[in-house]
Structure formats: structure tokens, C-alpha cells
Design brief:
The complex is a heterodimer of chains A (about 325) and B (about 300). Chain A is mainly α and about 325 residues long. Helices cover about 80% and strands about 0% of the residues of chain A. In chain A, helix 1 packs antiparallel against helix 12. Chain A is globular, with a radius of gyration of 24 Å. Chain B is flat and about 75 Å long. The longest helix of chain B has about 35 residues. Chain B has about 300 residues and is an all-alpha fold. Helices cover about 70% and strands about 0% of the residues of chain B. In chain B, helix 1 packs antiparallel against helix 11, helix 2 crosses helix 4 and helix 6 packs across helix 7. Classes of the chains: A mainly alpha (about 325), B mainly alpha (about 300). The interface between A and B is large, with 57 and 46 residues.
């Protein structure tokens, strides 16, 4: 188990280093002076000189890379070109909005998708099963950014039930929650279908196992069998799926934040791209990617901890 | 119960084997035709291809012709889907936007399929260190959420269709490669490959003539399922101004322009979204139906 933990941690760290390397090479693969590229063609010579000094551009590339890695490990992601603020602080001030959005989206998707999948699996080919089947393919196929736009159109512009843009007044919880509803709806929708389908598939598999048959033969209540015994095992592949799909969730959150002007990390990256504020792009992309790698790692470890079969094979 | 040609008795003639193969094909076609989702998907996919390829025939207006007095019009008999903020005909622009989507889907999916197939076979058949190295590369690419990688790249290169294609190809390669790798690894120790090798066949010959035909089937189904993803990435990037640039019509740019005037007219975001949904639904339904027909094992959960 310890070996597995160390191996997974090491691999994740290696992938993160490679991610930084990719972000770095992007900057150098483009012909021309990195400072001019980062600041845009209209930058003044002073700004370019200041940027070159700040980013250690006078050093050889591999040293710059090592400096960046070293700084990133200690939590220093460089300095915002325009506002001179620390990128770490900028990212930290925004990440809460994204985490809230992701948790809310995943939360309602799990609360609805899990029971739907269970009910569909308990009664295969019932009308509920068929409707769930078609709806889940439908919600998976519809692009989340389109759900965002149409949700904005219907509930904010036409019906005026919910606010369209922003994240709400700081300190006013109700206001913040009402700003969270539409983005969370849009980001979570495809996950309802996804989870329902996945849970149904693995439930059907588990329900055919001999130990479930024994439980039935012993006359245990169906509810206890389904939710007490079968779901415990059927949930495992779903945890892997949630971990793997987290990247898609981040992509969806980026769109939702742009469309609803929610000041999260996706909107931060987008604005920084538009303003050609490369240190912020680099830092925020690194944090978003590290978050994704961390979640995948966490879901794998959770599986190893929850599933005795996996645990013993380690 | 489909009859497998290899399961026939030894004295079966070539004629009988051909007949059994064609019977199996007919059987599969019938299974496909009884699946309403698959048929609906096929119809939508054909509509997508026809409307994009023959866009000039179906278009009622020049997609870039301005008609300022008629701007932001509701759907009328002259403008089937209304007009945009510059009075351009949204219906015609949607048809031409389909061409961008088709181009990205066709090039993006085929290139990533071929490269993924080759890399996957190399990883599955080659030495262990090469396999580990390629896996690490795939994991690194997959570690980036697609849109985040696209944002980081476009920050440096500026938006263009070429960049959208590159992003699509780079991010799709790992999934094809992984499937091809797993299939190759199960094949490499089978008897018929061993026999080939002992007959002195070169690695290239084994990969091209014996492994590839067995690996490519599942990849084609994966490709059908991947088209919605690719079309969505293009539309999404164009929507946030990082893909196809105005005035070129793309479903993403139409949605973007519609989003900017969403308080004046709902028609642009409605009309721009419908073809996107029909296309993604069509390819998803078709891909799932194909998978159920050709690989019942994978679709058992449905």
C-alpha cells in the first residue's frame, strides 16, 4: 500500500513537472522574443526590459525552468505583469468561486443521478429505466456551454427568476447562492445523465452476483440489499469516473464562469489570455491542472482504500 | 445467434463461409435498423454532412451580406432563422458554419485516429521502456483539461482554425492510443502472431497486416463518439473568441454574437444552438448503436 502510494504520488509529481515544461515550451516554441510575445506587440521597451528581468529572461532557458519549478514548490507563481500582484494571491482569491461551483454542480448531479441509476437498475426495462436511458444520452451529448447560454436566456433574461451575471454580494449568502444556481445547473446537468448511466450499469452487474442472491434468499429487505450491499460495490467504478471526468468538469466550469461572468479561476485564465498577461495564465493553468491531477489521484487512492479487492492486490 | 465463420465445421466450403459472413452482415444490419436511436442518429449525421457539403445550394442568402435595416429580425419567410446584429441571414450562416464544424471534425478525428493507432500499436508491441514513456506522454496530455490547454496555447499564438485543429488532435490522440495499445497487448501473445513471427515476418508487417485490422474496429466506433466532442470544442473555442474569427460563420461565432445581444433577441442563441445539439446527439446515438451492434460486450450496461 505504501509502495503504491509513493508510486502514484511520484508519477503525479512527474506529470505536474511535465505540465510546467509544456507551459514553458509553449512560450519558447513561438518564434520571437518571449517578453514581446507575453506582453504583446504594443509593449513599451521599458515594460519589456522590466518583464525580462522579472522573469529571469537573461538566464539560460533550463535555469529559468528550474527557477520557476523551485518557486512554484514554495508557493510563488510569479508576478502579475499589469497589477504587480503576486500570482499566487490572485489565484487564491479566485479559486473559492470555482471550488464552490464545482462542488455545487457535482453535489446536485450525485443527489439526482445516483438514485436515478439505482431505480433504473432495480427495474430494468421499466418506463423509468427507458426515460432515464434516453435522457442520460441526451444530457451527455448536449454541450455544457450551450446549456449555460440557454439557461441564461430562459431563467435570467426571459423569466428573470435568477440573476444573470456575477457571484453575488460578498457576505450575503443568499445572494451568492442565487448566483450559484444557474452555473451549477449548467455544469452539473450532463453529470446527472453520466452518473445515472454508470451507476445503473455497475448496479446491474453487482445485482447478478451470488452474494446478492444469497442476501435475497435470506429474505433481507430489498431496500437493504440495494442500498446497503449492492450500491456499496457499484459505487466504486463511479468514483473512478468522477475522478477521470473532473477535467471535463473544469472545462465546463471555465465556460460557465465566462458566460455568467463569475470571477472564478476559469474567468481569471480567460481574462489573462485576453490581456496577454502570461504569468497569470501560466500560474492559473498550473493550479487548475494540479487540481485535476490531485482529484484523479485522490479518487484512485479512495478506490484502493474502499475496495478490499484492490487493497489486497497492492 | 450470429454464426462465426471460424466456428464452421472443417469441411465447410469457401462458398458456405461467404454465405455465412453475408448472413451475419444482414443480421447486424437488421439489429441496427430496429434500434430507433441508431436510425435517428444516422439521419441526423447524414443531414449534417449534406447540409454542410451542399451549403451553397440550401442557403437563401449570402452568409456575409449585410442588411442593416433588417437587423435582429425575428424568423420570417425571407429569413428562416432571423437575422443577426448586422442583418446577416442566420439560417444561411448556420449552413456555412456547418462547413467549419465538418472540416474540424473530419480532419481532427481522422488525424488523431491514425496517429493514435500508430502510437498505440508501438506502445503495445514495442519494448517496455517505450511503452512507459508513451504512457507518461499520454498522461501528461490528459492532465490538461482541454479548454485550459487551449486557453494557454491561444494566449501565445492568437486564435485560428489551425490552432483549434492542433488542440483537438493533440488532446484526442491519447484515448485512441490507449484503446489501440490494450488491444495490441492482448493480441501480441496470441498463437497466430507467434506463428507469423516464427515464419520470419517483420515487425512492420505484423503490425500493418495482422494487428491493425483487428484493432481498428473499436477505434472507428470511438471516432464516431468523438465527433461530438470535437465539434463542441470548436464551437466552444469560437464562442469565447479563441477559435474561428468573425466574420467567418461558425456555430460558435453565431452563439457568441447572439450572446452579446441576448437581451435584444433570443433567436440567435436559439438558432445557433440547435444545429450543435442535433449534430452531437446524432453522432452519439449513431456511435452507441454501432457499438451495441458490433461489440455487444461493451454495451452490456445499456
Amino acid at each position: 500500500m505504501l509502495f503504491y502510494l509513493v508510486k502514484r504520488l511520484g508519477l503525479s509529481a512527474l506529470v505536474i513537472v511535465l505540465v510546467v515544461l509544456v507551459l514553458f515550451s509553449l512560450l519558447y516554441l513561438i518564434p520571437g522574443d518571449p517578453a514581446t510575445i507575453a506582453l504583446g506587440p504594443r509593449a513599451t521597451p521599458e515594460a519589456i526590459a522590466r518583464y525580462a528581468a522579472k522573469m529571469h529572461l537573461d538566464e539560460p532557458v533550463w535555469r529559468q525552468f528550474l527557477i520557476y519549478i523551485g518557486n512554484a514548490v514554495t508557493g510563488d507563481l510569479g508576478v502579475d505583469v499589469f497589477s504587480d500582484r503576486n500570482v499566487t494571491a490572485v489565484v487564491a482569491s479566485r479559486i473559492g468561486f470555482t471550488l464552490a461551483l464545482i462542488c455545487a454542480s457535482m453535489g446536485w448531479a450525485v443527489l439526482l443521478g445516483l438514485p436515478l441509476g439505482c431505480l433504473a437498475a432495480v427495474r430494468p426495462n421499466s418506463w423509468l429505466d427507458r426515460i432515464t436511458g434516453v435522457l442520460s444520452v441526451g444530457t451527455i451529448a448536449v454541450p455544457s456551454f450551450l446549456v449555460s447560454i440557454w439557461a441564461l436566456l430562459i431563467f435570467a433574461v426571459e423569466l428573470r427568476w435568477l440573476p444573470a451575471i456575477g457571484a453575488g454580494e460578498p457576505g450575503d449568502t443568499m445572494d451568492q447562492l442565487s448566483h450559484l444556481v444557474l452555473p451549477a445547473f449548467a455544469v452539473g446537468l450532463s453529470w446527472v445523465g453520466y452518473l445515472a448511466r454508470m451507476v445503473r450499469a455497475s448496479m446491474l452487474e453487482v445485482m447478478a452476483e451470488p452474494y446478492i442472491r444469497s442476501a435475497k434468499a435470506f429474505g433481507l429487505r430489498p431496500r437493504k440489499i440495494v442500498y446497503g450491499y449492492a450500491l456499496r460495490v457499484a459505487i466504486l467504478p463511479t468514483i473512478t469516473l468522477i475522478g477521470m471526468g473532473f477535467g471535463g468538469l473544469i472545462s465546463a466550469a471555465v465556460f460557465a464562469e465566462i458566460i455568467f461572468a463569475r470571477p472564478g479561476i476559469g474567468k481569471l485564465i480567460y481574462d489573462a489570455v485576453m490581456a496577454r498577461n502570461f504569468p497569470v495564465v501560466q500560474g492559473a493553468v498550473l493550479v487548475a491542472t494540479a487540481m485535476y491531477i490531485g482529484i484523479v489521484l485522490l479518487s484512485d487512492l479512495l478506490i484502493a482504500w474502499l475496495d478490499p479487492r484492490v487493497r489486497e492486490s497492492l | 445467434m450470429p454464426v462465426d465463420a471460424s466456428g464452421l465445421p472443417e469441411h465447410a466450403s469457401a462458398q458456405e463461409m461467404r454465405e455465412s459472413a453475408s448472413r451475419e452482415r444482414r443480421e447486424k444490419l437488421r439489429t441496427f435498423l430496429t434500434n430507433w436511436q441508431g436510425v435517428l442518429g444516422l439521419i441526423l449525421v447524414v443531414m449534417f454532412f449534406v447540409s454542410a457539403i451542399f451549403a451553397p445550394l440550401f442557403a437563401t442568402h449570402d452568409p456575409n451580406a449585410l442588411d442593416i435595416p433588417a437587423r435582429l429580425s425575428y424568423p420570417t419567410l425571407d429569413h428562416f432563422a432571423g437575422t443577426d446584429q448586422l442583418g446577416r441571414d442566420t439560417y444561411s450562416r448556420i449552413l456555412y458554419g456547418g462547413r467549419v464544424a465538418l472540416k474540424v471534425a473530419a480532419i481532427g478525428v481522422s488525424v488523431s485516429l491514425v496517429v493514435g493507432l500508430i502510437l498505440g500499436m508501438i506502445a503495445g508491441y514495442g519494448p517496455r521502456w517505450l511503452d512507459n514513456f508513451l504512457l507518461l506522454m499520454f498522461d501528461t496530455v490528459r492532465a490538461f483539461p482541454t479548454i485550459v490547454l487551449a486557453l494557454a496555447t491561444v494566449a501565445l499564438t492568437g486564435p485560428s482554425l489551425g490552432i483549434v485543429l492542433t488542440i483537438v488532435i493533440v488532446t484526442s490522440i491519447p484515448q485512441y492510443a490507449r484503446v489501440a495499445r490494450t488491444a495490441t497487448m492482448t493480441l501480441r501473445n496470441t498463437d497466430f502472431i507467434m506463428a507469423e513471427r516464427s515464419l520470419g515476418a517483420s515487425t512492420g508487417r505484423i503490425l500493418m497486416h495482422h494487428i491493425m485490422p483487428n484493432v481498428v474496429g473499436p477505434l472507428l466506433i470511438l471516432a464516431a463518439m468523438d465527433v461530438p466532442v470535437v465539434v463542441t470544442v470548436e464551437a466552444g473555442l469560437s464562442f469565447i473568441g479563441l477559435g474561428v474569427l468573425p466574420p467567418t460563420a461558425s456555430w460558435g461565432t453565431i452563439l457568441n454574437e447572439g450572446y452579446l445581444v441576448i437581451r435584444d433577441t433570443p433567436w440567435m442563441v436559439v438558432a445557433g444552438g440547435i444545429p450543435l445539439i442535433l449534430t452531437t446527439l446524432g453522432f452519439t446515438f449513431l456511435g452507441e448503436a454501432l457499438r451495441d451492434v458490433f461489440d455487444p460486450r461493451m454495451g452490456k450496461g445499456r
